[in-house]
Specification:
Elements: E1 8-10, E2 13-15, E3 22-26, E4 33-38, H1 42-60, H2 64-80, H3 82-93, H4 97-114, H5 117-120, E5 124-130, E6 133-141, E7 144-148, H6 162-167, E8 171-174, H7 182-194, E9 201-203, H8 208-216, E10 222-226, H9 229-241, E11 245-249, E12 254-258, H10 264-276, E13 286-292, H11 296-308, H12 328-344, E14 347-350, E15 369-372, H13 379-382, E16 389-395, H14 398-407, E17 410-411, E18 413-417, H15 421-430, E19 435-438, E20 454-455, E21 458-459, H16 467-472, E22 474-481
Parallel strand pairs: 7-8, 7-10, 8-9, 10-11, 12-13, 12-18, 13-16, 15-16, 18-19
Antiparallel strand pairs: 1-2, 3-4, 5-6, 6-22, 11-21, 14-15, 17-20
The chain binds nicotinamide-adenine-dinucleotide.
The site of nicotinamide-adenine-dinucleotide has 26 residues, from helix 8 and helix 9.
């Protein structure tokens, strides 16, 4: 059977890449070869940049309401095809159908929020800043922006940025994660159908070479990156060196705190969903539970009971609650961390390593895994594993929990589980972390708020989506006028 080869979308047309370098896109549950993705070369990136640059003037002069209307169309198409899109995500990434449906929903919400651009982009003014002198502050689009997303939300992450950038009047280039390029391909089919002018949104498949070409081009004005901390730091540095606006969302190690007065059943259910949903491959996933005092034993028992009962399998089966991790390479990495935890002396109270999923011998499966007796200085308590592995640490009080979190370089998400308003208030006030849940295990901000990682989970100053997006994708101009 002939394997589908993915094309680029440049200047309003699907164009095959000239590159002879191809990567296999593999279904991580079945091991089936889904397609091949080209690693495009620098000159192909150059064509996309030129198309975006050429489209910029016409697009910025298109009235914001007309720009918003193109997104109404795209939104309707996404809604119509949402089930189809969710199924593509499951096949390329491995998450469950429910998780994939949630991802598509969140993506649609970003498009919906961006359609508010006529109001969101408005400037401000003040009459009589001096005698007969008025002052107007306007926002203007800047030029060409690009997104470099990670593998774990293959459809949604580019849509944290692109709808806002483009609705503001900029033009755009997406370089999908080469591990999971299929749902971005589907997105661009919808973009094509929605009838945006050519060159406004472009897709270039590839890896590091494409990123380098985007970062080095003087015709690219800004970059939004989402991925691991090491690459985030590298992209941040390089983009800044080339004079670009840049926002880089990096890795995470998320600690959830359970206070002695937490509602046990609901707390345990929320932690399970946070730690093992999407096989732990979320930047908001629970990695370590800091259990305060006496709740430790009953919570541990409940977590092990719930995690042992999760049904692991192929995400297209509606009854499955956890899918595989994204690839064989990533599976080895996760297994390596479990081994490390054992060597470090943590107690493996639920071991997912031996899992076998009937009918899928080639799947990249690792079952829910829980470590007890984890110490704050262990590698498994500090480094991002990005798999279904949860560590438990007993702490004396909230102060100790906060101190452990403070010592960790990351600050993406956290949560406290408690019935006390006082503890909740103290926690949200003191914790040095950008996204905070109170009795919520995955505190993902909606599209109209910003996605606010702190510390090494974010490099930049303006965050993704919400109001920050309007700041990031526009330049301010202050006009001071007097008429004689
Ligand atoms: P990754 O850093 O390996 O890759 C991300 C993107 O960078 C991909 O498009 C990839 O092609 C590109 N890339 C990889 N190496 C590069 C290099 N040397 N130079 C230039 N570009 C390069 O990340 P991943 O494994 O795809 O994604 C998982 C990571 O993403 C996790 O660390 C997770 O925490 C993080 N993530 C963070 C957030 C957040 O909001 N902070 C959200 C989702 C995922």
């Amino acid at each position: 059977m002939e394997v589908k080869r993915i094309d680029n979308y440049i200047d309003g047309k699907w164009v095959p890449s000239d590159s002879s370098q191809l990567l296999d896109v593999v279904n991580p549950a079945t091991g089936a070869l889904l397609a091949q993705v080209p690693l495009s070369a620098q000159d192909e990136v150059g064509k996309a940049i030129k198309a975006a640059r050429d489209a910029f003037l016409g697009w910025r002069e298109t009235p914001p309401l007309a720009r918003a209307r193109s997104f109404f169309k795209l939104r309707d198409l996404m809604e119509e095809r949402s089930e189809e899109l969710a199924r593509v995500i499951v096949q390329e990434e491995g998450k469950t159908l429910d998780d994939a449906r949630g991802e598509v929903r969140r993506a649609i919400e970003n498009v919906e929020v961006a359609t508010g651009i006529p109001s969101l982009m408005m400037g401000s003014n003040l009459e009589d800043v001096a005698k007969d002198i008025d002052c107007d502050a306007v926002r203007q689009p800047i030029g060409v922006f690009c997104a470099i997303p990670p593998f774990n939300f293959p459809f949604m992450v580019s849509l944290w940025f692109m709808p806002f950038a483009v609705a503001c009047g900029n033009t755009y280039i997406v370089k999908p994660s080469e591990q999971v390029p299929l749902s971005q391909n589907s997105l661009f089919e919808l973009i094509d159908e929605a009838g945006f002018p050519r060159g406004v949104m472009n897709l270039v498949n590839g890896a590091k070479e494409v990123v380098d070409a985007l970062l080095e081009s003087k015709d690219v004005n800004g970059v939004s990156f989402v991925g691991s901390a090491t690459v985030a730091k590298h992209v941040y540095r390089k983009a800044a060196e080339h004079g670009k606006r840049v926002q880089c969302l990096g890795g995470a190690k998320n600690f959830l705190v359970a206070m002695p007065d937490a509602v046990l059943d609901r707390t345990a259910a929320a932690i399970i969903s946070s730690a093992f949903g999407a096989a732990g491959e979320r930047c908001l996933a629970a990695a370590v539970v800091l259990a305060v005092g006496d709740i430790y034993e009953p919570l541990r028992a409940k977590l092990v009971e719930l995690a042992s009962n999760l049904k692991v399998g192929y995400g297209l089966d509606e009854t499955v609650q956890m899918g595989p991790v994204v690839s064989r390479r990533h599976l080895d990495r996760v297994l390596g961390y479990i081994e490390k935890g054992v060597q470090e002396g943590a107690r493996l109270i639920l071991d997912g390593r031996q899992i076998r999923v009937d009918g899928y011998p080639n799947g990249c499966f690792v079952g829910p895994t829980i470590f007890d007796h984890v110490k704050p200085d262990m590698v498994i308590a500090n480094e991002e594993i990005f798999g279904p592995v949860l560590g438990l640490i007993r702490v004396r009080d909230l102060d100790e929990a906060l101190a452990i979190m403070d010592a960790n370089p990351y600050g993406n998400a956290t949560a406290i589980f408690t019935s006390s308003g006082k503890w909740a208030r103290e926690f949200k006030y003191r914790v040095r972390c950008g996204m905070v849940g109170i009795n919520i295990g995955v505190p993902a901000p909606m599209a109209f708020f910003t996605f606010t990682g702190w510390k090494d989970s974010f490099f930049g100053d303006l965050h993704g989506h919400g109001r920050d997006a309007i700041e990031f994708f526009t330049e301010k101009k202050i006009v001071t006028s007097r008429w004689f």
